[in-house]
Every structure is written in C-alpha cells, then in structure tokens.
Amino acid sequence: MADDAGDTPGADPAVTSVPPAQTMAAAPAPAGFGERPATRGDTPAANSDAADIPDEAEQQLVADMVNNPMLDKVQKILVETLLREQQRTANEARELAEMAQRASRKREDTGVELYGAQQQLARLQLSLEQIHANAAELAEQRAHEETAAQEARARHGSLNKALSDRRKHVAKNQAELDAINDTLRQVETYNEEMQKEIAVTKRATYKAEEQVQSLEKAKEGQDLYVNKLDERARVLGERIAVTEARLAKQQDESAEARKLLAETGQEMDLVAFEKKQLLQQWKSSLVQLARRDEALAAAQTQLEAAREVIRDVENEIIGTRREENKQITANRSLEELSGKIGLQEAQCVEETQKYTAEADAVAAQFDLLHAAMTQVDEEEKKIAEEGKHTKDGLGQLSANIQIVTVERQKIEQKVLSAASDRATINNAIEALKKPLKAVKQRTQDLEMQQVMVDNELARVKIDALNTKAHNDQLKETLASFDVKLKEQEDLIGKYQREIRQRHDDVEKKTLRVAFLNRKLQLHLKDIDLGPEEAMGPLENEIRMLRKETSKIKEECSRLQGVWLADQTRLVEVAQRTEAILEETAELRARNRILDERRIRITKEGTEKRAAVAALHKATAGMRADTARLNELIGKHTKQQEALSNETGVLELSFRAELKELETESLAAEQKVHEARSRKNVLLEEVIDGERQVLLWEKKIELERETQAALDPSVGTGEIKAMEIEIHRMKMRLEGLQREQEAMIKEMERGIAKREAITLRYKGKARPTALEHTKQSLREHVKKLRGKIQATAREASQLSNAITNKKQELDTSTSELADATARYGSLETDANDLQQAINRLLYEKQRRAELQAAKEATVGRYLDLERGTAELRGPEHASEVDAALSRGAENLGRCRDVIAALGKRFDYLAEPLGRIKHLADDAEAGQLVAT
C-alpha cells in the first residue's frame, strides 16, 4: 500500500517517508496488531498482560494521546488546515458551477466554428485539385523540353564529329612524336619509361577535354563546374604551399645533415690525428729497437774482444808441456763444442736465407700493391671521363625533349585557337572555353614541371649509378687491400715472434758460454804456466770458425736493418690505405645525399600524378552529380504524390487518437481518485502506529516493574548488569522519544506539504473556458506524454550509463589483466636481463683475472729477461713437479666438491658452473697464482 501511495502522483510524501520506528510498529504481524518478538526483558506473563488490556484502556490511551501536550501544536495546525480546506472547497464549488455554464455556451460556439472549418476544408480540396492540374501541365512542358534537349544533343553529336577530325590530326602529330620518342628510347631504357609517362599524361589530358566537352550537355552544371575548378585551384595552391613548406623543412634537414657531416668529419680528423700519433709512436719504437740492436752489436763486439783475450790465454795454456794429456781431452771437448757451433751456424745460415727469401716476397707483394693502386687511379680517371660524356649526352637528350615538348605545346595552342574559331554552339559553351584554356595551361605547366623533375631525376639516378659503381670498385679494392694488409701484419707478427725466439736462443747460448768460461777458469786454476808452444791445426780451424761466426752475426745485423726498412715501408702503405678509406667514406656520404635527393624528387612526382588523378576524379564526380539531380527530380514528384496521400491518412489517425486520449484522461481521473483513497488508508495506519508506540511504552514500564519485583536482593555483579540494562533501556527510551518528536515534526511537515500541494496551482490565474476543451486536454495529454518520454529517455540514459560503466569496468578489468600479464612478462624479461648481466659481469671478472694472470706471467718473464728474478735450475725440477701434482690433486678435489654440491643443491647450478669454469681455466694453465 505504501508503494502504491508513493507511485501515485497526488500521494502525500509525509505518509511515504515514515520513520524507522513507525514502519516497525505499523508492520502487521500474524499474531495480532501491536505485538513484537520477545526480547531479553519480555516474559510470558508480560505478553499475556499486554494481550488482556481491556477496551477501556485503549480508549483511555487514545484520550491520553489526544490530550498529550506534545500534540497540541499538531492538532492546532490540523484544525487550521481543515478550515482553510473547507473554505477553498466551497469557493471551488461555486467556481465549478460558473465554469459549467461557460462550458455550455462555449460548446455552442464550437459547433458554429466547426461548421465554418468544414466549409474551409471544402475550399482547400478544390484548390488541391487545381494544383494537381497545374502539375500535369508542368509535366507536359517538361516532356516538351526533354525533346528539345534531345535535338540539342543531336546537334552536339555533329559538332563532336568535327572535333574528332581535329583529334585525328592531333593523333598524326602524336604518331610523329611517338616516332621521335622511339629514337630517344634507343639511347637509354629510362627515357623510354619517361616517354610512356608523358604519353599517359597526354591521354589523360585528352580524356579530361572530352569530359569537359561532355559537361556542356547540361547548362545547369556550368556554375558548379566553375566553382569546383576554383576550389581545385585553391587546393592546388594549398598543396604548393605545403610543398614549399616541405622544401623549407627538407632544406633545414639538409643543413642539419651537413652540420652532422661536418661534425663527423671533425671526429674522423681527430681519429686520423690519433692514428698518425700512433704511427709516429710506432716509428719511434722502431728507432729505439734499432738503437737497441746497435747496442747489442756493440756488446757483441766487446764480447768478441773478450773472447780474443780468452783465446790468447788458451793458446798460452795449450803451449804448456806439463798437461798434454789434459789438454788433449780439453781439445777433444772443444772440438765437439765447435762441431755443435758449426751445426748451429749452418742452421743460422739457412734461416738467414729463408728470411731473405721472405723479405723478397714481401717486397714483391708491395710492388704488386703499388701497381694495383696505380691501376685503380687510372680506372677512376676513366670512370670520371665516361661520367662526363654520359652527362653531356643526357643534357643534349633533355634539351631535345624540351624542344619537342615546346613544339607539342605550340600545336595544342593552334588546336585551341581553331576550336575557338569554330565554337558556334551558344554563349554558355563560349563561357566554358576560358576555364578550359586555364586548365590546359595549368596542365602544360604541370607537364613542364614533370619534364624538369624527370630530367633532374634521371641526372640524379645516373649520378647515383656512377657513384654506386665507383663505390663497389673501391670496396673491392679496399677488401683486397685489407686482405693483403692482414697477411702482411700476420707475416710481421711471425717475424717478430721468430726474432724474439732468436733473441731467447742468443741469450741461452750466452749463458751457456758464460757457464763454459766459468768451468774453464776452474780448470785453469790447476794449470801451471810454462813456455809457449806452437799452436796446432785444430787451433787454426777454431779461429777460422770464429771468424765465420762473426761474419754471420754481421749479416744478421744487416738483415735486421733491412727488416726495419720494411717496417717503415709498411707504415707508409698503412697511411696510403687510410687515405683511400677517407675518400671512400666521402663518396659514401655523397651517395647517401644523392639517394635522399632521388627519393624526394620521386615523392614530388607521385604527388603531381595524384593531383592530375584527382582532377579526373572531380570531372567524373560532376557527371555523376548531373545524373543524380535528374534522379532527384523524379523522386520529388513521387514524394509529392505520396505526401498528399499521407495527409489524408494522418487526418483520420488524428481523429482516432483524440478519442483514445479522451479515454485515457477518464482513466487518469479514476487513478487520482484511487490514490486519494489510499492516502486516507495510510493516514489511518499512521494513527494505529502511534497507538502501538504507546503500547510499547507501557510494556517497557511493566517490564521494569516486574524486574524490580523479582530481583530485590542481587549481588553486585547482578546490580551492575541491571544498571547496564537500565542504561540501555534509558538510551532506548531517549531514542523512542527522539523518534516520537521526529514523527510529530513529520506529521506537521506532512500537513503543511499537503496544504502546499493543494494550493500549488491555486495561486495561478484561473483557467479559462478554453482549457477545458478537447484541444486543451489534448495539449495537456501531449505534455504528460512528453514528460513520460523525457522520463523514459532519462531512464534509458541511466541504463546506458550503467551499461557503459559496466563496459568500462570490463575494459578496466581486461586492461588490468593485460597490465598484469605485461608486468609478468616484463618481470621475466628483467630476470633474464639480470641473469645476462650477471653472466656478463662474471665473464668480465673472469677475463680480468685471466688478463691479470697473463700480465703477471709476462712481468715474470720480463724480470727474468732483465735479470732481476732468479731462474730455477734443473735441481728444483722435483719440487716443481711435486707442487704441480699437489695443485692437480687440489683441483680434482675441488671438482668433486662442485659436482657433489651441484647434485645436492639444484638452485646453485649457475654459481657452481662459474666456479667450474674457473677450475677449467686453472687446469688449462690460464690462471696462475701470483
């Protein structure tokens, strides 16, 4: 019932907005009106007492409620409102009686007006018949005009025949032009494509002319065509402006590219300067190496002088007679030593010959490289001359093409002048020739621009091809130079390694000679000096061998000088190679710039072709528009007939709709009456709710008295519990009192709102008698329908908003899922990247340790070479072997521990693998404990 009251338009809002306490009390229960579920304070006795309250108590309760001072204000307001309502009702009754009289008089006037409207409708039907007759006459006139248009089309066909003869003459000229183009195609394949494009453009131009002449059939499309041409000219102007803006932008980009090239050139100059410094350092190192070799030669000469002194002493020792047997044994040992030295000298001679042969081979390769460079220079000169000849030929060819284009344009000008002399159709056709000339002029300008662009594109392509061929040749030459340079560097490295090995051998032999000298000194201590004796044949042979050894050493020093000269020549070859690389880089930059120019020119050509195609499309659109206008005219006549039929049908439908609205208005009045009755019922329910509240209060009071009577002596805990319960009941009482006050205020507000609703439309001007007619009711119903439609639209908008929110929620959910998936993928990628970083860091650390170990090894070798470190002899071989075996055992145990940990802990596979790699490096001897 409350829902019905809320849905009814005239329902009182005060009745619908009942406080929570009232709704709880007003709700009917199956057990009886006014009962509630048993709470902690309710007992069966209390419930039975509440049920046995006599009618006198209820009447007394109602009297107390009426005499309650809190309701005085409400009763006063209710009495005032009832008095005012009574007065208003009496006034409305008098007004309604007067309005009924007015309505009767108005009904009579309406009958008279309806008769006049019927007469007016008859006159309108007569005028409609006259309009139909006029439409038939207009249709006949249109048929006559169409026959005249067909005759004009026939005349236009005869004129087209004359125009076709002129086009045949133009076709002959085109054949001659094609013959010239055939001769030009034999020069280069690219020019053939260019002539094809020119022919296509000409055919497109002729097609545009035919389309323009075909547009002369419809005079009404002339203005539209001129407007479209003007619009097209404006679009082309805008495109030209855009092209100029692009050109300025490209010029800025070219300036930036030149700036970037200048910066790159500066950086390349810095690199070349650093390279020159490195070459100078290399030369200085070679000079220092030569000085070192000279110092070594001086030391060797001093050693030879010392050896000569030793030889003299040996000759004196050999001359002694006391130790002949000992001297013979010493001579035998010296003979064996001299044999070994002879074998070593023979090996040195062979190696020297080998080095000389390799030096000759290197010289021959250098000569070949020099010859190849000279050949490359000659080929470059030839290519430059061929490029000049090709450019001259292309210039002449472009000049011939421009001459032919100018002649063709002159022929077209003659054709246009002849066509203008024979133009005798009408003034409209004469007016169309000016824009046609303008279009042809623009077409010719576009053709000239296209020819210039094609010529420029051809030049750029030829330059690009020449540059590309030259770059390919330079690349091949550079590749061959790189291969040869790599071979020379490998050979130099081999020579350096062999030189270091020979130095090591010399040092070993020097140490061996020092050892033998010390041993000789030990032997000489036991020998007494005696008279000299003559030296034998073996001593002379030894002296001869020593002289040959000195000659071989001199030859070695000479070969070292030759090697230094070869090193200087190698530096010069490297400098020349660097110059060739710089030239190649410059040519590549030029090629890149030419490629960009070619791309830009090609793009401009495509844009111009697109503009011509757009013109063709616009002419075809105009023809389609004329056909569409004819179709629309036919549709207009059909729609006019359909509209006359629809007016009659709508008139009948409006009459039926008026009857339906009358029935709906009666139904609405019935609903208003029902709503008022429901309102009265709700007021009665509110009074019953107030009575129920009073009953609840009496129950609460009775419950308190029974609790106080049943529990006179309770312990402290129970007393506290009772105090808490009393406090809770007090709070509940205060809440009920607040609810009661709110209810009273709500009642006052309901009474005031009821009066406001009653007086809402009373303050306005009194409705006239016209508002009670069918038209006024129709307008009122229309307003109500508008409100209903607005409410429906708002409901649909709200439902659409709800669906949109749901869709947004779904999209947000999907986006959240996608974001979660992306986050997961990014997290996996981050993990992979972190693992890769860890691997790279480990590899970096490993290589750094390897480098440090190698540097430590090199440092030890250098210390041994300088003599600052002590070299362990064969007597320490056993200790070294024992240390090596202990290290191998420790490494094996480490490997076993790593394998065991890897089997037991799978998640440590990566760090254990790194440790295993370190163990492998240690086993391979790459890591050395420093």
TrEMBL record:
Region of interest: Disordered: 1-53
Comp. bias regions, Low complexity: 7-31
Coiled coil: 79-197, 240-267, 296-323, 719-746, 774-836
Stated name of the protein: Coiled-coil domain-containing protein 40
One of the GO biological process terms: axoneme assembly
Transcription regulation as UniProt keyword: no
Keyword set, alphabetical order: Coiled coil
GO cellular-component term (any): cytoplasm
